[in-house]
UniProtKB/TrEMBL annotation:
Belongs to the alkaline ceramidase family. This is Alkaline ceramidase. InterPro entries: ACER (IPR008901). GO terms for biological process: ceramide metabolic process; phytosphingosine biosynthetic process; sphingosine biosynthetic process. Coiled coil: none annotated. Pathway: Lipid metabolism; sphingolipid metabolism; Sphingolipid metabolism. Its EC number is 3.5.1.-. It is an enzyme of class 3 (hydrolase). Its cofactor is Zn(2+). GO terms for molecular function: metal ion binding; N-acylsphingosine amidohydrolase activity. It catalyses: N-(9Z-octadecenoyl)-sphing-4-enine + H2O = sphing-4-enine + (9Z)-octadecenoate; an N-acylsphing-4-enine + H2O = sphing-4-enine + a fatty acid; an N-acylsphinganine + H2O = sphinganine + a fatty acid.
Length: 278
């Protein structure tokens, strides 16, 4: 499948294509700034390094994607496509090891995920087939989807809203990415007839960046919430959107826990993240 962005790289850049390039570049900020903030907060709260790496991995994808859309060079495209695989592997590790002891390191999944990442990188560098990268990435995302749905169905049902919001936002981005690839030429021709502002906000590839960036960020928050709840830190992840108040997370009622419960003596932490407080 030839993507809309790949089409641009082959042609000469005219005004509308330049505008498209700016939109696709700037939209990566959503994948860069909130994750850097998340990494700092995670580090400051003394949480496990794997979550700092998750946030930094997402920021690395955003920076790689920024470089690619700014230059439209194949080498730069690898700077976002390979980190997509690596950061997803970190997410998979976090979610599959979330019911283990604090700071416990399990070398078998690390070895398997490293092997997977190296194999995908080597094959992709030789074969250069985008569909191969897409299938490998989708395989990792499917793992995350099944695992998180399992956890919110059977273990922490009060986290269902966060899980399904992250999933829906991510999948909506994926739908827009497909539409953009399938009807690329029609969309571009239509946009050129629209006022520049309308044209700017209808760039579906830029929306794919925004929605997958946001969906992935929410996924890290979900993973972190699952982990800290399991470790009995009793966190309160407060997700606030621009001006729309707080995300309706329902936690179990801590007062309902008997006073002699081991839960009460455990450390209580409040972790507050903002998604888009800019
Ligand atoms: C429960 C929600 C799961 C969230 C998973 C989060 C995984 C996040 C990992 C990394 C973040 C990536 C954000 C996307 C950045 C896109 C940058 C970009 O546009 N790159 C292009 C080049 O510039 C590149 O060519 C695009 C590749 C797209 C590959 C899309 C593959 C399809 C994935 C769809 C998976 C759906 C699976 C559903 C299974 C039930
Ligand atoms: Zn892109």
């Amino acid at each position: 499948m030839v993507s809309c962005v790949a089409e641009i790289t082959r042609g000469s850049l005219i005004f509308f294509e330049q505008a498209e390039t700016y939109g696709n570049t700037v939209s990566n900020l959503i994948m860069i700034l909130p994750p850097i903030y998340g990494a700092l907060q995670t580090f400051k709260n003394g949480l496990e390094v794997r979550y700092v790496l998750s946030f930094l991995g997402l920021a690395a994808v955003g920076i790689g994607s920024w470089c690619f859309h700014m230059t439209l060079q194949y080498e730069m495209q690898l700077l976002d496509e390979l980190p997509m695989i690596y950061s997803c592997c970190v997410f998979v590790y976090c979610l599959y090891e979330c019911f283990k002891q604090e700071n416990a390191v399990n070398y078998l999944p690390i070895a398997l995920l490293l092997f997977f990442s190296i194999t995908v990188s080597v094959v992709y560098l030789q074969w250069k087939e985008p569909v191969f990268h897409q299938v490998m990435y989708a395989f990792l995302v499917a793992f995350l989807v099944f695992r998180s749905v399992f956890i919110v169905t059977w273990v922490y049902p009060w986290l269902r809203a966060l899980c399904y919001t992250s999933l829906s936002v991510f999948l909506l981005g994926f739908v827009l990415w497909n539409i953009d690839n399938i009807v690329c030429d029609t969309l571009r021709a239509t946009r050129q007839r629209l006022p520049p502002v309308v044209g700017a906000v209808t760039q579906l590839h830029a929306w794919w960046h925004i929605l997958t960036g946001l969906g992935s960020y929410l996924h890290i928050l979900l993973s972190l919430q699952i982990r800290t709840t399991y470790l009995k830190h009793r966190p309160k992840v407060k997700v606030s959107a621009a001006s729309s108040g707080h995300y309706p997370l329902k936690e179990p009622d801590i007062d309902a826990i008997p006073a002699d419960s081991s839960l009460v003596s455990c450390e209580s932490r409040v972790i507050s993240f903002s998604v888009l407080t800019v």
